């Protein structure tokens, strides 16, 4: 092997590594720029929608319609999921307590866990699939059929008529749904505790009052409002940025559910850290 | 159009050096390369061209739904193509658009669709006045007043376009843009739409811009026809001038010839 070949091979390897590194860097850079751009636009939409809330309220028919679609029709789902959340948490707590922790704290554990975590988070995740996907699909379909452009062309702000009512209703009704869910979860926990876990009704109910704090409800409500905002905002954002066709609608729905689920978990930690730490 | 006075110096829409590109997975695609077009107040200008050529893109620039990469769009003396904030709402109240598939609001009835923008732009308007306008517009588009309570999903394609036109006219625009108004319709329904375009121009004294590749419709409704070819406006003239032109690309399009042929002298 002559000296030229001896030098050329390492240089070629270095060049190849350099090209790969540049390619990776460019893709990461593109991803970061796209992510920051998305966050910026969502913050802009959020701010503009908040400013439009007073105008959105002046069209009560739209608000009521969204409330019926997003909230009232979700109650049966909340009922089923919350009952099971309560039942599971009671069984799990009983298992963890075993003979180490007195059963009078079962009600305390279930209530605290439900109000602070399971209620808002699990209900939020279920609602991201129910409400978030519905909003994303509706908005994506409207965009596909040029209805969003029709609002703009008629001199009407799509944010006022499409985004603001949905986001407002979601932020107002999520706390209602989650509090209802927490209540049903405690009932479910009580039912399974009394019927199958050997806990008396008095023991369970007195446990729920033990260490009960109004602050727990406050934390639950803060999480509810934030989750309601995240679910509806992300649903609208992915809907309005959907690609065309049925595939675009499907992708918008999927992205809405995935992104709102991740954001619910992130904000759950953030709120817990800020309010409970 | 008989009975409609058009001043050739009174320009209501002016497109100057319009350029627009779109990005997709294949890279940048230039749709409009250098579009220059002047539309006179009160006339019906028809823009023809091949499918995917950018005709609808031109319409969307006129109404501000798209911003050009270069060039200017001037509507009634106001430049609407600047990236900075402009009074979009006022400009758009002067303009209306009939979308290709109608773009009716699915959650509202026909009457609510027609009255929606009217109520929003005129807060406090009595419901009697709204009902009167809706009934009058339904009559204009030859639909029975009973249609006011029907939902868009119950309408045919032609009916949706007629209701969409009624919705556009409810806010009394000065300019109406039509995006392929006869596409997907049978010949008889297409002629109904053509007659509506003509009646709208004569009754409401609007300026109309129609994008179509339906030459029967173009010849019937147009005062002038402009042809878009490979991102440029290559011809503007009256329907008779279009038929008589020696421009081979225009002749290829209007005759529906697959291959380009030299035009005999």
The share of residues in extended strands of chain A comes to: under 5%
Largest interface: A-B, 12 and 24 residues
Give the count of structural domains of chain A: 1
Question: Shape of chain B from CA axes?
Answer: globular
Strands, helices and their partners?
The complex is a heterodimer of chains A (277) and B (265).
Chain A: H1 3-57, H2 60-70, H3 75-97, H4 106-144, H5 147-153, H6 158-196, H7 201-209, H8 214-240, H9 245-276
Helix pairs in contact in A: 1-6, 2-6, 3-4, 3-6, 4-6, 4-7, 4-8, 4-9, 6-8, 8-9
Chain B: E1 11-24, E2 27-40, E3 44-49, H1 55-62, E4 70-75, E5 78-79, H2 88-93, E6 95-98, H3 110-121, H4 127-140, H5 157-170, E7 175-179, H6 187-204, E8 207-211, H7 215-221, E9 224-229, E10 232-237, H8 239-244, H9 248-255
Parallel strand pairs in B: 3-8, 3-9, 6-7, 7-8
Antiparallel strand pairs in B: 1-2, 1-4, 4-5, 9-10
For this entry, give a set of tags.
heterodimer, A: 277 residues, mainly alpha, 9 helices, B: 265 residues, alpha/beta, 6-stranded mixed β-sheet, 4-stranded antiparallel β-sheet, globular
Q: What do these coordinates show?
A:
The complex is a heterodimer of chains A (277) and B (265). Chain A is mainly α and 277 residues long. Chain A has one domain. Helix content of chain A is 87%, strand content 0%. Chain A is flat. Helix content of chain B is 35%, strand content 26%. Chain B has 9 helices and 10 strands. In chain B, strand 7, helix 6 and strand 8 form a beta-alpha-beta unit. The longest helix of chain B is centred in the C-terminal third of the chain and has 18 residues. The chains are: A mainly alpha (277), B alpha/beta (265). Chains A and B meet through helix 5 of A and helix 2, strand 6 and helix 3 of B.
